Every structure is written in structure tokens, then in C-alpha cells.
Amino acid sequence: MIKDNIAKARERVKKACLEVGRIHAAVTIIAVSKNRSVEEIKEAITCGVTDIGENKVQEALKKYYELRVTDYGLRNIKWHMIGHLQTNKVKEAVKIFDLIHSVDSLRLAVEINKAAAKINKVQDVLIEVKTSPEEAKYGLNPDKITGILQEILQLRNVRVKGLMTIAALVDNPEQARPYFRMLRELRDKINQPLVLSMGMTDDFQVAVEEGADMVRIGRGIFSRQ
Ligand SMILES: *Cc1c(COP(=O)(O)O)cnc(C)c1O
User: Fold this and answer.
1) What is the Cβ-side half-sphere exposure of residue 107, based on CA atoms within 13 angstroms?
2) Is residue 137's pLDDT more than 90?
3) Is residue 217 within 6 Å of ligand 1 at its C-beta?
4) Using a 6 Å cutoff on CB, does residue 35 contact ligand 1?
5) Residue 102 CA: which ligand 1 atom is closest?
6) Whose C-alpha lies nearest to ligand 1, atom 6?
7) Which of 31, 38, 62, 70 has a 20 to 30 Å separation from 18 between CA atoms?
8) SS3 track for 1-60
9) What does the pLDDT look like over 192-203, one tens digit per residue?
10) Residue 85, pLDDT above cutoff 80
């Protein structure tokens, strides 16, 4: 099942890219494995998944270390923190995550910088943007982004790689398009080579059409479709 799901997800990414003339190999599929077992993650990796997304630090740590002591530990898997990150979890998070998608305050960035400096790491992060202010719980208002970017650029152990958003829940994926477009336009306005993390199981095709560089797929990979 996981194998077929991954093949289908790849096919849909390809189709979306063809639609708008993008190169599909440039889109990273992140398999969101929250609430899934290490066995399921192994299966996804066997099927070619290279990027794993988790939304809770404790759960991710457990799975990360469990996988590391198996043959899978030798593979170059990238771990993505996609959930809200509390400052008291930052120290653990910087140990295992290659990319933290959910920086939504300067305070959090400062904490990440401190923790990363202690282990001589430059932590890659994305800034989470609230593209649907009335619905999103976390994320910064679009008009705050350039200000916070200027501040984060001063932090030596944090590197901003891009922007992330969670689109509002909608009935039809087309209705999510404006949120994705808003994130892309924000990036274009900032005029820096920033990647976009957007799109989930129900709407990732639209997100790719709107320029997503990373899509975060949970149910679409691990659940029966
Ligand atoms: C759970 C989650 C996803 C994946 O959701 P699906 O609808 O299962 O694809 C993506 N992004 C974030 C931030 C999540 O928490």
C-alpha cells in the first residue's frame, strides 16, 4: 500500500509540474510519519522516501534513534520538524532535525540559534507564515516577515532556507490555491532564493502548481487511499 501510495504521489507531483512547466525532480516529497510506527517509516524508506516529517519532538527523537541503530541508520534520511515547536524542546530538536519548518517568532529563532551554537551546528529553518489569519493557529502575519528576516539574518547559527504555510481547511483543493499563491508572491517580493514548503495530502497538487518546493504528505502515503 505504501509503495503504491508513493508511486501515486510522485505521479501527481509530476502531473502538476507538467501543468505549469516545472521540473518535477526539484520537488521534495516529505513523508509525514506522525502517529506512524517505525516499521511504516522503514517501508517508506525502502520505497525511496528520503525525507521524513514529524510534528512532535519527543515522538521524533524516539523514532530517529530507533532507526539509527538499524541498517536504515546508514541511509541519508533528512528529518523535518513540521509542527509547532515549543522553546523548551529546542535543545532536543536541533540535535536531530535537518530542517525546522515552523519558526514563528523571533524568540524561537533566538533559542534555536543558542542551542545550535552549543553543538556547533547551523540550523536550517523555514519561517511559518499565516496565509489564512482567521483560521491558522500558528505562523507570522505576512507583513511581519521581512522584519523578522532581517533580525534572523543576524543570528549566526540559524539559516533561513524558506517559507512554510499550512493552508486553511477547504472542501475543494482549488480553494486552497490563494493561500499557496500568497506564499509564493511573498517569496517573490522578498526576492531571495527561498524555498516554499506547502501542500498536504488533499491539496499538494495545487501547491506544486503554485510553486511548492516541498510537499508534506501524511495520509496520502501511510493510509489506504
Ligand atoms: C499532519 C501534517 C501534514 C500532513 O497531513 P496530511 O493531510 O496527512 O497529508 C502536513 N503538515 C503539517 C504541518 C502537519 O501537521
Assistant:
1) 5
2) no
3) yes
4) no
5) 13
6) 218
7) 31
8) CHHHHHHHHHHHHHHHHHHHCCCHHHCEEEEECCCCCHHHHHHHHHCCCCEEEECCHHHH
9) 999 999 999 999
10) yes
